[in-house]
Specification:
Radius of gyration: 20 Å
Structural class: alpha+beta
Helix content: 25-40%
Strand content: 25-35%
């Protein structure tokens, strides 16, 4: 069982923020993630015909100077750009997909992808991490995963899990659909919290996207919860007519249709602090669920965890 000083489970925005801050301070954290790529909900789905869909986070915004500087660097590197969708505040998107922002932040970090963590347990030296690829030990552990996943890894007996149990997150079902070139595109984005589809975006209108009109639709929390366990094909079949009704299109004219299930997408009751910490001080847990339903909240949480680790020496 290999030993490491700092391990981070989750290579989403919070995990990447934490790892980068620690690396810049001279540490060598190791990140584990079950996915094939980094970024968590900063993700891009590829489809036949060169299609790309930002089926998770649609854009990021910055209110803190530190996060704004990060996005500025990503734009200078050609990995991000402003999307003019009519919003009053700048909406920054990855180019050519949202995952490009995460890939930019992940450069130079030690990340092990395709590793599913099954359980973590405290030891006299720190923590043991059991995965489908073997076991590791670390002196400091960071759980940068959604709150429900952190609770499952820790188990009910760990006091920190009980603290996290107050956090509430809602699911989101996403629809990806493309249509023939020349198909009418009545708007670039539309948000309506009272609609079954509370977010609709013309994905192909974002910078550095080519191809025919492609759309992303996110179902509202109540609709998503009601249909969460349906097969993805059935979810797509149910959501496509809703999208087409709002676009004034015939559902049979769609060329590509697919759905994705985000179980822990939206923070409805945050922790109210930048992170959770074990009494022994060897474990931190964080993410957007600590502060609110914005990508910047994940960055803020991950950065705060790094400061806490550094303060402990």
């Amino acid at each position: 069982m290999a030993d490491m000083k700092i391990a981070i489970i989750g290579a989403g925005l919070a995990g990447l923020a934490c790892a980068r801050a620690l690396q810049e301070a001279g540490h060598s954290p190791v990140l584990f993630d079950k996915s094939r790529g980094v970024g968590g909900r900063l993700s891009t789905r590829r489809a036949e015909g060169g299609l790309r869909f930002d089926h998770g986070a649609q854009f990021v915004t910055a209110r803190m100077p530190s996060f704004s500087a990060i996005l500025d660097k990503a734009q200078l590197a050609g990995r991000a750009a402003r999307w003019d969708d009519g919003a009053p505040e700048p909406h920054i998107v990855g180019t050519p997909g949202m995952s490009s922002i995460a890939k930019h932040l992940a450069a130079g970090l030690d990340i092990w992808l395709g590793v599913t963590t099954k359980a973590v347990s405290a030891t006299s030296e720190g923590w043991r991490i059991d995965t489908d690829r073997g076991s590791w030990s670390c002196r400091r552990l960071v759980l940068a995963v959604p709150a429900p996943q952190a609770m499952r890894l820790l188990g009910d007996a760990v006091p920190l899990a009980r603290d996290i149990s107050a956090v509430k997150m809602a699911p989101c079902l996403a629809l990806m659909a493309s249509f023939a070139a020349g198909t009418p595109t009545p708007f670039r984005s539309r948000r309506d919290p009272d609609d079954a589809l509370d977010w609709i975006a013309l994905n192909s209108s974002k910078p550095d996207r080519d191809g025919p009109p492609s759309w992303i639709a996110h179902a509202a929390p109540a609709w998503s919860q009601a249909h969460l366990e349906h097969p993805r094909e059935e979810i797509a079949t149910l959501m496509l007519p809703l999208l087409c009704e709002r676009l004034g299109l015939d559902p049979t004219s769609a060329h590509h249709v697919a759905a994705h299930r985000w179980r822990h997408a939206r923070v409805t009751t945050p922790l109210g602090a930048p992170f959770a910490r074990s009494q022994a001080g060897t474990l931190n847990a964080g993410g957007d669920w600590c502060l609110g339903a914005r990508a910047e909240c994940a960055w803020e949480s991950g950065t705060a965890i790094a400061r806490d680790v550094l303060d402990d020496g």
